[in-house]
Amino acid sequence: MSKPLISVKNLKKYFNVGWRKTLKAVDGINFDIYPGETFGLVGESGCGKSTAGRTIIGLYEPTDGTTTFNGKNIYDLSRNEMQKIRKDIQMIFQDPYTSLNPRIPVQDIVAEPLDIHNIYSNPNQRRKRVIELLNLVGLGEEHTNRFPHEFSGGQRQRIGIARALALNPKFIICDEPISALDVSIQAQVINLLKNLQKGMGLTYLFISHDLSMVRYISERIGVMYSGHIVELADSEDLYADPIHPYTQALLSAIPIPDPKKQRDRYRIILKGDILSPINPKESCRFESRCPYVLDICGRKEPGFKKVKNNHFVACHRANEIIDGTLNQSRNPY
Amino acid sequence: MEKLLDVKDLAVSFRTYFGEIEAVRGISFHVNKGETVAIVGESGCGKSVTSNSLMQLLQMPPAYYKRGKILFQGENIIKKSEKEMQDIRGNKISMIFQDPMASLNPTMKVGKQIIEGIVKRQGLGKNKARKKAIEMLESVSVPQSNKRIGQYPHELSIGMCQRVMIAIAMISNPKLLIADEPTTALDVTVQAQILDIMKDIQKKSQTSIILITHDLGIVADMSDRIIVMYAGKFMEEGNVMEVFNNPMHPYTGKLLGSVPGLNINKFEPLHSIEGSPPDLYKPPTGCPFFDRCDEAMYICKDNVPERTYHSDTHYSCCWLNHPMAKDAAEGGEI
Amino acid sequence: MNDLSFKRDMFKNISKKSHKIDQIKRPAIKYWTDVWHRLKRNKLAMVGLIILIIMGIMSVLGTQISGYSYYEQDLTKINQALSRDYWFGTDELGRDLFSRVWLGTRYSLTIGIFAALIDFLVGVIYGGIAGMASRKVDAVMMHMAEIIYSIPYMLVVILFSVIFSAPRSGTSMFILILAMTITGWVPMSNLVRGQVLQLKESEYSLAAESLGASKGWILKKHIIPNGLGPILINVTITIPKAIFSEATLSFMGLGLQPPSPSLGTLANDGLAGMAVGLYHQIAVPAIFISLLMFSFNVLGDGLRDALDPKLRK
């Protein structure tokens, strides 16, 4: 097994939201990402996945934990060393309508990383590089002088990708890159990301709430709920054999675009409300909505344990679920 | 069966200082009692303009009804005055929107907003109205409804806000409920809850629903009929089973193909559609999908295709379905 | 339309390799062009703009037109009403009010614009730094600004004019502007700081940060250009405020002294004329002050509407 490119250990990010109120957005997550792979981080709104992404890239200072890149903890680096790392780790943002400065023409947006790091002093070379990057994402020279608002969402997202590629990074964090796009355009962008990965040997952390897309693009997936990773497995294994009750409910809730199958299938509808992430008590975070909840779930946090090959779950009743001793259907498909 | 809503050749445009934008370019459809019709399309296709125009909710100017009729229970909505519309909105036709947080008054307690509606529409006294409000919240599965009544919108989760919106929309048992992307802003697990509630309501009160969405999954879950819209025009319409199992328009086919389904092959690229929808500032003269269609023919560029019916209920607007296209194909063309 | 006689040929597949897909049809519209278009449609704002342009031009040329200079005294022609010779009449020393009033406009405009400019520069720099700095530094800077702002404005002006004025020519323009702006920049810096705090959280700022941009870079390239709108509106409000402040001070005798004719001193001079029915001596400067104020305010309102993204179509 090769060495991981990125290693996240016990990462925590808490926010102070008032007198003695702590919002634990990310509460101790662990995972490794290997070179050339796509790791999917999946969860619904408020689970902390975006916060995790931003902490990993260094936009937020962590409350605890480490993110190791190429063997060094990025939170320990000096400003100079961090500037160098910035060339290797880039981010693509969710909202194509707000992640590009509306007052700057496209060529300056794409060239901004080059300008910040003073890569090209010759304006001709700079322009050449910008056009090269635009071509990589399916846009052209004729777009260089236009402004973001003149483009569609999908095109804007491609401009964002071109910007992220400018410094030839090794690792790109994709923070919900397709959520704001139409379905047929999502497919365009996903195909583009995949091709770029192959062509440039990129490693991705793909953050999204869209399980179907994440399954398509990722090799391994981590499911996040309320600041914790509740399940982590190879993507096909996660779909074939979801163990954590939340993963099961999540998969069950995705509507299938096939009327007969959709209307015939067995569905898990979660009742209850999500627990507040502010000053949470010591318990399983899914306790308030879990169909298999026991006493212990309200008193003790479940540990993140390996239950199968390459398959980890954080649930007190994981073994029962695997053995089938719980009287519930496991695969909601 | 009498048509509850009958839209004939509706066209809506926007006047801007640099020209006219034709958002809706001649659409016709109907909705019967108790059925759910989904209008599906991507952003910019005109589906939201369509739904807003059904209740005269567009800002006029710059929008204006270029031509056509919207017949609701036989009467033309376009010709109605603002006063008459106020009697229809929230009463005979209700609408729920994408962002429930934006549709609720953040400074007013949730209960008050519902009770006001009940008092105004049904003339009940405050106490009776309060009881009814609690009932309605329970009917949309809001737990602890007597506690929720006293809370402000920001104290409720977004899923609960959407449920409150549905409750408010259903106060006077409207004949038609227009749901404009009702679950787009919600998480998938909350979406499942909301769709269940909507199906429940429809069963109980026989309300017709127009569901505006881009998500084919929820169409498969909920609708009886589906209409596919693109660049201001309808491309295909039919029963849900007909269209999903046998899409006759290339755009519909591509839409269905771009959603990664159950049996996806990870090594094949996803079916996507190259390019972007056309700008309706200078709309294309022929078939709007011409630019992005793999199977486009010469005739498609400048001629708008007419409807070809595949069954009583299923039609598509595509030259490929024209009998002459089959002819040409059989004649051994290149 | 109902041409059913389509040729068979037209049903051949068209190969579209040469077809450009990602074309943009609409004319490229820059942000400020769009704002200008929207402003143009606001008739009132345009009226204000035209008035300002006319007054601006006249403030430079006006003193040359009438043939009389602003300081020439003709004691035989004192306190004359409007006439062919003296279009706005004369004052109590026989000076041509027409020339004087245009010169006064020039002074008022200069003072107003310079005061607003200093306001703007200091405010943007101070507010920008405070907004981008850490919470602690920001807090300290804001407290300092509060303290400065709490010094009574009038006190400062009086102190300055007493300390720095030359015996005969009164307070110089420079000192006056200094006195007005030394505490006046605080609201602008608050506004700028608010904009910065808000735009700091925008996704494109975050994107720049993730690329390795320094805080100064983000402030200069991303935040200020996008925050310019409300700041500009504030400037168009600050100018009339400054003009009016100066006029008031001069009216009270604290500002520019005679013979420098600011609109305020002219109004002051004209007060005496009111008693003997020479209304034009006060009416003319008063109308000019009002016109300036009105025009700037109406232009500022129009700008606010033109910049409002919600009204954008």
Helix-residue proportion of chain C: 55-70%
Helix/sheet category of chain C: mainly alpha
Number of strands of chain A: 12
Please describe the biggest sheet of chain A, giving its number of strands, its sense, and whether it closes into a barrel: 8 strands, mixed
CATH class value of chain C: Mainly Alpha
**CATH architecture descriptor of chain C:** Orthogonal Bundle
* SS-based class of chain A: alpha/beta
User: Approximately how much beta-strand content do the residues of chain A carry?
Assistant: 15-25%
Q: Please, what is the average pLDDT of chain C?
A: 81
Beta content of chain C comes to: under 5%
Strand/helix succession of chain A: EEEHEEHEHHHEHEHEEHHHHEEH
Distance between the termini of chain C: 34 Å
Q: CA-to-CA gap between the ends of chain A?
A: 33 Å
User: Over all CA atoms, what is the radius of gyration of chain C?
Assistant: 27 Å
Question: Globular, elongated, flat, extended or rod-shaped: what is the shape of chain C?
Answer: flat
CATH topology-level fold name of chain C: MetI-like fold
Question: How much helix, percentage-wise, in residues of chain A?
Answer: 25-40%
Number of helices of chain A: 12
Give me a quick take on this structure.
The complex is a heterotrimer of chains A (333), B (334) and C (313). In chain B, 34% of the residues lie in helices and 24% in strands. With 334 residues, chain B is of the alpha/beta class.
Structure in words:
The complex is a heterotrimer of chains A (333), B (334) and C (313). The two termini of chain A are 33 Å apart. Helices cover 34% and strands 22% of the residues of chain A. Chain A is α/β, with parallel strands linked by helices and 333 residues long. Chain A has helices at residues 49-56, 79-88, 106-116, 123-136, 153-165, 183-200, 211-217, 235-240, 245-253, 259-264, 295-299, 318-323, and strands at residues 6-18, 21-33, 38-42, 64-69, 72-73, 89-92, 171-175, 203-208, 220-225, 228-234, 305-308, 311-313. The longest helix of chain A is centred in the middle third of the chain and has 18 residues, at 183-200. An 8-stranded mixed sheet of chain A has the order 6-7-8-3-9-10-12-11, sandwiched between helices. With 334 residues, chain B is an alpha/beta fold. Chain B has 2 domains: 3-92 and 172-329, P-loop containing nucleotide triphosphate hydrolases (Rossmann fold, 3-Layer(aba) Sandwich), CATH 3.40.50; 93-171, no CATH class. In chain B, the strands form 2 sheets. Chain B has an 8-stranded mixed sheet with strand order 6-7-8-3-9-10-12-11, with helices on both faces. The longest helix of chain B has 18 residues, at 188-205. The radius of gyration of chain B is 22 Å and the shape is globular. Chain C is mainly α. Chain C is 67% helix and 0% strand. Chain C has 11 helices and no strands. The mean pLDDT of chain C is 81. At the A-B interface, helix 5, helix 6, helix 7, helix 9 and helix 10 of A face helix 8, helix 9, helix 10 and helix 11 of B.
